[in-house]
């Protein structure tokens, strides 16, 4: 199809969809309205289970089944990337040459890596209390690890990154989440039912029943998944070379 | 209604628009500098917002931005070093000005919060923000000179 | 019992996670055996639940049973259609895994478990989507199923076509999913709920006596865009041939056999639960939209199918044609239509998976799936040839295959001139399959000449096994044979049709009952289709020179350009078309 | 001002979606196309959060406020958006992986130059 | 007043999204996307969704640009190798 024809199609389709969307926007309840029945119920349910962060309660208790799907998406995507970015038949690996980085940058990186890891851990651990949680903290911790690549070089990163262990952790965290869910079925309540553990004291680290456990499982999963994901992309960008040209 | 939110609006409007203009025009090297300054300009806005809404919990966002913003810039500095070669961008005047704004905001907030854990957190954010920014600027203006392979 | 419903998702996911965790240590046969066992266990669980699904059960994940009609949890539906789809998914995954036993040449080094693990995640995702009673949950599993499908489609990274098809698939389906999510956001804004049944009630309450408004229309269009992209309805269908022609054969069996049909199932479920009330989209408008698009899909799919030479691509277009037929049956909104679509989907899954399995055998034996190149070369593969031909006849709806029963019931339900579409679409697609069978397995007719037409040939494909096979392994003939036998059983086991009809109607049509059994009318129409298919195939094979595609076909073929940008433009146009088709009811209301 | 503010966030979400689609359809570079797809997804975040916003409300996170003292915004849409962001990141990663393989096998990033899978 | 703040954040996001689509060079687009991530985080804070803001910062400001830039680098390196071999 020619570019011109495609633009015409796009114009017609886009205009139609724009009209539909605009008409719908005018019918939507005004921005900032007060009616949120599900939201109100969610807040009540969260307080009843002593979870200070309602969003964590929705994610890891009320709609924990959605989060199972979400973490499976991440798990599947990592598995998919490992498969798609594997070394093909006509490729080989080349050791990257060591990089030289200005000293202040190197120092900054070495200083910030532990700070970022602590920060990531803090965000995961306080997930059920303050904003944050397994996902956010996991990404921070995993991304921070790559400061070693940015500030030093790829070999430094590879030294602290046993890939097999991270892959296994990724999968085992998914297992842990599922096993926690299945515990509910075995106990005769329901899948992912948060009824087995005491709800604890409101606004403390151990409150919310199994919310902190699920949160930790997601945190581990996300951190190791992001490490594996980035490792595959880094391998492509740095190590893997195609054999013949043309 | 309070002045904190007003200040945040001004900071967001001014800093944001400038950052947007900087990152969409000009040579690549200039754009990376603008990307770096976005972090520096918006992190104080997040701190002001947390204060304005009366929600100390929102400070975590500023912490994360102060931590990850420079990391993002280092990504570009490392992976775009061919583009940065030759025309080393530096906007030291602007960098110091933005860092100054950040410092001023942190100091003002410290004065309001008073001593305690919250103040320590603010100071950590301030240190990370300003330190990270200066380092990232340094990296952009030649920190990776002589980088090989990897 | 109902507490076990979410296990249909949890068990395959657990199996996949264990496989991935142990993947580095596990030898390949152990990994594949684990995959088979977990899959079989899920299938057994689905069957047990299916047998206990009358009356329909509902499970609240997390144990958030509604208090005073209000819940914060997620609804998981266990009625006949949802568990039926889950069972179909599980059984088909089982057969795909059995088919791929010792199949791929080279699992990624150190990741022997990754293919079975991905297949298990795929199974879990499709089960989750089938069981979802909550709109956002449906979106999550929709996306999970898509993500796995992209990875599986691009599995053979050495193939230029495979990675391109997977990317097109990924972009178009993701965009469809985002459209669906936007629609869910609109519905949430109006009703403040996420459970499908509560959204439906919320829409009715909000509309009062006024009927639907622009917001309902937009939400309908956006949610259906997502589902119809999955169901490969014209003009959202372009990704399907590109993806199905290039995916590994066991994956094709799942994609064509059940994933696409899940889109149709989603349309049925979402319309029936969310938009069927007075505050939703009026029945006449839905019928107009679905029947128009369905007929368009059936015709386009059938015509394009006829002019393919790449065998897997040909089968992919035939899936498109049949999906159009399912949509028409669902679109007439009668209990009989639902029954017909359900039976047709069941039969079609077995037949289409068997046909893909046979095409896979050709690919691995000869390194080609090109009709012209393979002319007469596959004489030695008697068993595969017989299966392929029988599959073709079953595709035409020859009684007593399950496809025939489904087609007959659907034809009865739609009635009138639409019957012609059913007969023609199934005859043309089946004719194409039989033509391939005659040329490839029997070497009938003169070898077709190559033209430099705008088309994808299937020559010089890399086999999926390590090197070309010397003989086709038993699994590769047993699996299609079993699948065809199952399709045959669906039409012959007495009472099967009624059983399906009863469980579908119990869930969907508010107690209305229809019976689904062979009628004289249906048998005759099935015979007519089959005869027509044979006639078409004979005519094509015996013509002395291959008539190149007529001139009016060229624009149609050019539309299938393999270009992501084109497909995105079509997606937007399609949603506009959908809105236009559903508009009268909103204006009138 | 306030009448406009009633619908503006929704309209901006719709605008961003269509802009992303435009970029996707006219893209000459597959990496750019993947970026445009993530722009499309941004629109869903904006829409969902705009739907859940409540004037004068604050986040339902009770680590630093007492329950019941202030009006609250809707927590459910926030949870949905969180899921959505994860989905977006993973889809981006997966599609980029496919793009890398396309470059290897086809030697080009321009969708106009991909000459397989036609007709 | 808070309306004005929301307005500013929304307009910034809309403008940046447009710019992200208009930048045809992937490396430059990644820069804009990273800025878009930060603006979105601010918008989410303004809409009282700090949790979402945090994950947007983590994903949008660091992870996605890193992924895109690694892809760009791979392609550039490949091109360089090809040119060198010729």
Automatic annotation (TrEMBL), chain A:
Report TM segments: 71-88, 108-127, 133-150, 171-193, 213-234
Q: What is its main location?
A: membrane
Q: How does it sit in the membrane?
A: Multi-pass membrane protein
The listed locations are: Cell membrane
Any matching Pfam family:
MnhB
One GO cellular component, as annotated: plasma membrane
Where does the source fall among the domains of life? Answer: Bacteria
Q: Which UniProt keywords apply?
A: Cell membrane, Membrane, Transmembrane, Transmembrane helix
Entry's family note: Belongs to the CPA3 antiporters (TC 2.A.63) subunit B family.
The record's listing under PANTHER family reads: NA(+)/H(+) ANTIPORTER SUBUNIT B, NA(+)_H(+) ANTIPORTER SUBUNIT B
Its protein name is: Sodium:proton antiporter
What organism is the protein native to?
Streptomyces griseofuscus
User: What taxonomic ancestry is recorded?
Assistant: Bacteria, Bacillati, Actinomycetota, Actinomycetes, Kitasatosporales
Automatic annotation (TrEMBL), chain B:
Q: Does the keyword Calcium apply?
A: no
Q: How does it sit in the membrane?
A: Multi-pass membrane protein
Extract the GO molecular function terms from the UniProt entry.
monoatomic ion transmembrane transporter activity
Give the subcellular location.
Cell membrane
Chief subcellular location: membrane
Mind telling me which residue stretches traverse the membrane in this protein?
Answer: 57-79, 91-112, 119-140
What are the entry keywords? Answer: Cell membrane, Membrane, Transmembrane, Transmembrane helix
Question: In which domain of life is the source organism classified?
Answer: Bacteria
What InterPro entries does UniProt report for this protein, alphabetically?
MrpF/PhaF-like
* N-terminal signal peptide: none
Q: Could you give one GO CC term from the UniProt record?
A: plasma membrane
By what name is this protein known?
Answer: Membrane protein
- Taxonomic classification, please? Bacteria, Bacillati, Actinomycetota, Actinomycetes, Kitasatosporales
UniProtKB/TrEMBL annotation, chain C:
Q: Which Gene Ontology biological process is one annotated for this entry?
A: ATP synthesis coupled electron transport
Alphabetical list of Pfam families matching this protein: Proton_antipo_M (PF00361)
The record's Gene Ontology cellular component field reads: plasma membrane
This protein's UniProt keywords: Cell membrane, Membrane, Transmembrane, Transmembrane helix
Name where it mostly resides: membrane
Q: Which PANTHER family match?
A: NA(+)_H(+) ANTIPORTER SUBUNIT D1, NADH DEHYDROGENASE
Give the residue range of the signal peptide: none
Q: Where in the cell is it found?
A: Cell membrane; Membrane
Could you tell me which residue ranges the NADH:quinone oxidoreductase/Mrp antiporter transmembrane domain spans? 132-410
| Entry protein name | NADH dehydrogenase
Bilayer topology reads: Multi-pass membrane protein
Where are its TM segments located?
Answer: 30-50, 83-101, 113-132, 138-155, 167-189, 214-233, 245-268, 288-307, 314-335, 341-363, 383-402, 414-434, 478-497, 517-541, 567-587
Gene Ontology terms for molecular function: NADH dehydrogenase (ubiquinone) activity
Family of this protein: Belongs to the CPA3 antiporters (TC 2.A.63) subunit D family.
TrEMBL record, chain E:
Q: Name one Pfam family in it.
A: MbhD
Report how it sits in the membrane: Multi-pass membrane protein
Q: Which residues form the MrpA C-terminal/MbhD domain?
A: 11-77
Q: Where in the cell is it found?
A: Cell membrane
TM segment ranges: 29-47, 54-72
| Chief location bin | membrane
The record's Gene Ontology cellular component field reads: plasma membrane
Transmembrane helix found in the keyword field: yes
**Which InterPro entries does the annotation name?**
MrpA_C/MbhD, Nuo/plastoQ_OxRdtase_6_NuoJ
Q: Where is the signal peptide?
A: 1-19
Q: What does the UniProt keyword field contain?
A: Cell membrane, Membrane, Signal, Transmembrane, Transmembrane helix
The answer on whether this UniProt entry bears the keyword Transmembrane reads: yes
- State what protein this is by name: DUF4040 domain-containing protein
